[in-house]
Amino acid sequence: MRPYGERWRASYACDPWGSRGRLFPEAVSPTRSEFQRDRDRIIHSSAFRRLKHKTQVFVYHEGDHYRTRLTHTIEVSQIARALARSLGLDEDLAEALALSHDLGHTPFGHTGEDTLDECMKEFGGFDHNAQALRVVTRLERRYAEYDGLNLAWETLEGLVKHNGPLLDPEGQPTLRYAERGVPLAILEYNAQHDLELATYASGEAQAAAIADDIAYDSHDIDDGLRAALFDIEELREVPFLDEILTEIDARYPGLELSRRIHELTRRVITRFVEDVVAEGDRRIAALAPTTADDIRHGAETVMCFSHKMREADASIKRFLFAHMYRHPKVMQVRAEADDVLRDLFQRFKNEPEAMPEEWRADLTRDDEARLARRVADYIAGMTDGYAILEHRRLFDVTPDLR
Where is the HD domain positioned along the sequence (predicted)? Predict the structure, then answer.
């Protein structure tokens, strides 16, 4: 039975009452749709709570005003819901996917992923999307009847494929996985529960993916300005941002800096969202989908920027890469964070008894690959602060990461 007052959905939206189901069948909830249940399970997971103490670019010492993985995730969720609502997609599925998209991230932002990937090079590498799948299918251990969260097929599909197909029509890895292959964790789960890796994900997953890009562009500008890594006038190097700043200054001459920054970031979000909705409308009209599968089997994504806004997005990312992600201050912290995680990985791999009992149980030194993956799972789940505390416990000298 569908609940009273349910929102309108387009025919090409994922139907929560027609889900392809869960790996472990469960009775239907009388009060929540399948996607609402998934959203709630994600919010109540341990991995989700830990996002509060995992950072994006800055480590936790930098202050309370900078984004963490959790605040970023909430912003992505808000944008994803707005996109889904505008295009008749299922808001709850878009929200669940936005809330889960960073569950596989390590401490210390992208530095942590790069470090673990290097440490795991001979054991299949480390990929945060594959790790997110491990989290929601294996590593969360809360329920009596199964490991993981037992999420619906549509949620798992979107989690794995939100950036596009992983395989081409011939079954070969797509460009981003061409060199190293699709991560083993994804292939192993897919063998049990086919996620159709050669197709696009649903429109809801695509909405969550592009919401992530929009949130990054806007909040990294905000955080970079707060940290004084660049000046607001330097943003005029980006024509898109120069146009917005000129508009703000004409309407609000002499506006104080904090309000000027907020006016800039909110306009960035608004223009990107409006562009995605307009481009999505155009592409959906051209495809004329009548089911969610029509979007999955389309020749291209339906949720994306127009050509003009793709260039704006790329130009913002180029600016941030040069002025923020590769800023000497950030690079120094990255190097120190890299040292911390490399030290922890080698110590736990050489001395698994240094890990808590639940992490070293049933391990043997003979199975080096399994041991390495267990160590990577343990480290990936750490918050920034816990990684530093573990390093201090095991080593005489720990970087300040300031």
Answer: 69-217
